[in-house]
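User: Please predict structures.

Assistant: First:
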Amino acid sequence: MVVREVSKSFHHPHERVHTLKERAVRPFRRRQADRFDALRGVSFAVKQGEFFGILGRNGSGKSTLLKCMAGIYGPDRGEIEIGGRLSTFIELGVGFNPDLAARDNVVLNGIMLGLTPREARARFDAVIEFAELEEFVDLKLKNYSSGMQVRLAFSVMIQVDADVLLIDEVLAVGDAAFQQKCFDVFYRLKEEGKTILFVTHDMPAVQRFCDRAVLLERGVVRLVGDPERVANHYIEVNFGRDRLAGAEPEQDGGERFGSGDAEIVEGWFEDEHGERATTLPHGARCSVKMRVRFHKTVEDLDVAMLLENELRQPLFATSTGDGGIRITRSEADTEYLYSITFDNHFAAGRIYASPWVIARRSGLLDRRPRVASAVVTSPRNTGGVVEIPHEMSYERVP
């Protein structure tokens, strides 16, 4: 898929004509309108089989871009090239008739999404089973709860045999069990080599699924690249501290994000003897620590730490809030030591520490991805991310 220099504008009239009489009485009246540029020269390419995230604040042009790619809107300028069959998950449940039962709605919606009537009927049982609505097949949709409608709509949409899928905020609705089902479907679609464009505000989902991502701001592409880097810049934009324009990454510990009211001065690992270490034996006690300096007095804080492996897979995350520690106030020109001690059950390989400091009222103060690293040593190489203490048995059955 290629999006090349796509622009889209809308016009908002100052005065609206609601009746035919108003238009007939003043047929030649000049009406003024404001122009809104939703997309301005947007360009990027998505490889076949890639899971591609689209990030941006409300009003940044994400949904307009997806609707242009889906053919709902025609771009004013530019080109969009899509290879393969397209399916759009822009609004769950669009096309459902509340006065019809689930069976009729599944068939009609499946046909709208590109299935033949025979295919839609043949997949009905699979749709209902996935949605867990076997007891409500004959109930009219107007009597469904919102969660039941979401489950049914998503179940229909994943039955479409598409090469390219456009998904807009599908994880913003539904309970935790339904969201986990969405995750399972996403993993399956990735394994099947589907090309997926995914609009969301959920940063963990972006880092969990996406191979790359694009950040939009006011209809302009601000950054395309690694999902973690794009997600971090999205946080910066949200807090009004955008450093994208000409900013170079800091050299000590990579990029950092936040207001700067607090500064993560350094981070390091320690072995079971309390000595700074770059290697950590598997099974031994160890610690990860960071030193924080406050340049302003800040109230109601939370300090957190993420440990991840070389593949950027999250291994462990915790915060002062999770540990029952409440930080009500940190004075300006003071330093604090944040420490986490744990038994090292990680598998052999390099691990990284990414700390951050957050004020609940004002937002992110400082975050330093991968500020420290250490190598976990182990005589075993299981291929997993952790080696859990366990017992094993093997015996003949009588």
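Second:
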Amino acid sequence: MNHKLFSTALVAALVGGATLSLAPIGAARAVAPVVKTSAPGYYRMMLGDFEVTALSDGTAEFPVDKLLTGTTPAKVNAALAKSFLKSPLETSGNAYVINTGSKLILIDAGAGRIFRPTVGHLVASLRAAGYQPEQVDEVYLTHMHPDHVGGLMDGDKMVFPNATVRADKHDADFWLSQANFEQAPAAAKEYFQGAMASLSPYVKANRFSPFDGQTELSPGIKAVATRGHTPGHSSYVIESKGQKLVVWGDLIHVASVQLDNPSIGIQFDGDAKAAAVQRKRAFADAAKGGYIVAASHIQFPGLGRVRADGKAFTWVPVNYSVVR
């Protein structure tokens, strides 16, 4: 260090009116309150020419040791413990924006107001990521459970007023049916009510366009039928310049348990056997293909790859990267 230059600068600062405070080493500068909240959540990556932004809708705790099926609470808790987790498990709610350069496409809309108080933050995350709801051209739904469709509406207002909503017709025919609602058990009626309240305004405005199974929805983006969790559950395959991302939706809920044993389901599955078939197929294909996967309920941002480990699988999160 040039001590003469430092001394000259110090004298100049003091003469100029600056004050020099010499606090004891280790002394506290201020008493800061505990905040207990994170900033609005988004994570961005490039996939070829497409920009992919993961959005956090928040988290919710679930008693997964009681909700997972085809296993026992003791086995679930043991599997969670291996990953330093426990039940109730704080579970992420993730959605994804695909900016193709000509369209802004949102995959799933979050819970809005109709699910749990700790979720419903998708719009805040969307704005933090630099987008406005009015800019969204299309919304693709993996399925019509409340935590995926509730964010379409804010009271009586469309959150995405310029968007066309798309989903498999099998989900629409099931969840938007008044007859099905009336025949549903009391515990399931809120699922129908949530779907109807969220989708009906878009249907009436001619902004709902269902599809049937494998369908190209936009250049580089296609829907693939992965029915089981719900009658019309869909995954979305996004490809650009030889790079591939598959949005799984709710094919998986608890990675630390279901990757070890894909036959394990969850009580939210409408058809447990069909959901297990789709899950096993998706895990194996992802491990073989080495492409990136996006999952609705794996810890945010829910982006990673799958590696085969014998009959089990391992989740490998994407490497954190600053987009340039």
